Task: structure prediction
Amino acid sequence: MTPADLFALPFMQRALIAAVFVGIAAPAIGTYLVQRRLALMGDGIGHVAVTGVAIGLVTSTSPTWTAVVVAVLGATLIELIRERGHTNGDVALALFFYGGLAGGVLITGLGGENASTLQSFLFGSILTITIPDVLVTMVLATVVAVLCLGLAPQLFAVSHDQEFARVAGLNVRAYNLLVAVLAALSVTVAMRTVGLLLVSALLVVPVATAQQVTRSFRTTLVAAMGLGVLASLGGLVIAALASFRANVAPGATIVLLSLAVFVLTWPLGVWLRRRQRARVPFDDEVPADHAHAHDEDDHAHGEDCGHPAVPHGDHLDYVHDGHRHAPHGGHYDEH
Result:
């Protein structure tokens, strides 16, 4: 079979469509999780969703929908526990996370299913993606992306400064719960391609990569979504081509490709930050105790004085001994 024949197969086409929507949705909500310093929340939701998958397998219903229901309930409880802010909250969350994973394995065994059945959900499998799975992925991913973009000002305000958001009249709890629910939806739609145990990387790594080269939140959000699509499609294609020689999991390939892009982008981010600092080498304002009168300065400042010039309104200031001076015969206005 040639690569062209492989991509002509229906299951591969379904996987590519699902990968595009997963690549859009996961980094979209992941941007807000990173902003709130909850980068590992997706990992916790993935553990909880395992129980939902097990319930679907045992009851012969759709594992996707049962995983959605359990993941949403779990994400809501996680957010409520986090909101209470107890000192042992992290311990409670850890117990909750791993309880979900253990519960999924236990329910699968009690239902007579083999624990290996969960493997395709834990690490992803393009062979198991059906047409209903693709439709569910498209619908839920679209909902996540539309809300993340449409409510970007409100979600950013809540994620960046909750006290300011409250003063501005926003319902902080409602928006926090919305972020948790959207994260749960993103995790469940990605479990077929990336896997429940690896999906957290797709929520976080594209965002971290975008932050290396962007300087605004909205630009980071859009760039992270683009990088997510690139990683999802690229990882899936690499896994499919490598399947001619070995059994390569698409989820692992997608995550490793995301990490590789981050590593390649990191030096560029360092260079951009250094360049930004070089453009603004000192503060815009001069401290009051450093100010001195121009008529007491016997040094003439001008184009040939050898001191670096700094734009200031419609004239140039020359820096000498850590202080700014107007050109000879000019003036200095402190803003």
Summary: The chain is about 65% helix and 5% strand. The first helix runs from residue 3 to 7. Residues 286-297, 313-335 have pLDDT under 50 and may be disordered.
